[in-house]
TrEMBL record:
Top-level division of the source organism's lineage: Bacteria
Species name: Methylorubrum zatmanii
InterPro entries in alphabetical order: DUF6880
Record-given protein name: DUF6880 family protein
Pfam families xrefs: DUF6880
Region of interest (Disordered), residue spans: 1-30
Lineage: Bacteria, Pseudomonadati, Pseudomonadota, Alphaproteobacteria, Hyphomicrobiales
Amino acid sequence: MARRVKGAGETGDKPPAVKARKSRSTTPTADSLAALSQERLIALILEEVGQSAAFKKRVSAALAALQGPDTVAAMVDRRLGALEKARGFIDWQKRRAFAADLDATLATILTDLKPLDPSMALDRLLRFLQGADATLERVDDSSGQVHAVYEAAAEAAAGLAAALPPEAALRFATRAIDGLDRDGFGLVSALLVDLLPKLTKEALDSLDASLVEALAALPPPVARKAGAVAAPGQDWERRYHRLRLSRLRQVIADARNDADAFIAIERDLSPERPDLPAVAERLLRAGRAEEALDWIRRKQKPGTVVVTRQDLIAGAIDPDGPEREREAVEIRILDALGRKEEAQALRWARFERSLDPQILRDYLARLPDFEDDEALERAFAHAASRKDPHSGLYFLIRWPNLDRAARLVLDRRGEWSGRIWELLAPAAEALEPDHPLAASLLYRALIGDILERARSPAYGHGARHLTRLGELARELRPGDLTPNHEDYVAALRKAHGRKSGFWSQVEG
């Protein structure tokens, strides 16, 4: 009798047993932590308390919450008092720990105090924000990490105040306005901008009257004599405070849908350079498109370009932004008036100058059927014919039309600047799969710039580009690229052989 061979998993006559239970997830979640014993959790908490000052404060706040809101509020008040008295400078090395400490204070207010007494929590949030100027002036916050904590506090305060009964919300907003002269970083102003549209009409009327009184109480701006040079910072604080109060009045005007009040305030603020797009937007919203068109087409002398803190952090200063905004509003007005051809002409003119893909999409979407293909071809041809080919390549890569981008690279092969690496590197990567010759030309331009300028921090990038060139060379036909890859590398070694930092990375 033949012996039966046991199948996989069989163990004699008994049914196969489950050898091991499915392993429990090691990701900390409510369910996974519930499996730990109370003693183990306590030990873990105490271990972290000994290592993290911010976590220790969070645990202390949670314990204080068991005793009631007064205990938590007293803990927060001690921390806020210490912040208000502190004078030492916090450099970038200590910034992260300091931001974590601030975040722990904010979390204590929102997580531990707010559920027990929202009014007490809101009072502490306002005090926290009113002390932001003194704190931010003594912190190296180039990353915006500390400022972000205060922004979160302003957002939370606006939401909490909006949920109050109308009279309580009005009292809070009035207190916030009273402290605006100490709001150099605009955090309390941001809170009010968020809060005011959510208040009742009666509250808005009362706050607008308070703002008018506060503006009237301000001393007039210092008159400058002809030819006099103002001292640095002279009269700046009063002018800035006047601007803050007036902008809040405009927020109230918007909440009331009162375009005329908004315009009157704007004229008072800047009689020579009113914000034309802002005024036109309000008139358009009010159904007064003809007046809006008149405003948006008024001529103004060039003025100072406003650069926001976000622009500085991102390194994105856009001098063309105001004109682009003005044209966008004008296009919407023309559409509202039914002047479609004028709106389309403005869209095309804007595209010709900027090569903005979105404005082209808007233009194409409004064309009659079967006309969009011809217009799109005209747009591609215009992009390829620009005097500077880099802007055309940027547009074609973003659209995307990689075939036309590759053709542009080949047609203008001697014009590519490796200095514009933020365009050429991603363009080369995008072209690699289907257009190896165009990608190779861009990689050579990048490598040439790196070596000619001896940009040692970029040698690693150059080495990777050279490796990719070798791989792409196998996809090219003989004669596609002159010199071929081997001769190109030999020429690089001859011209830049002493740049050992580059060649060591290539060999590595």
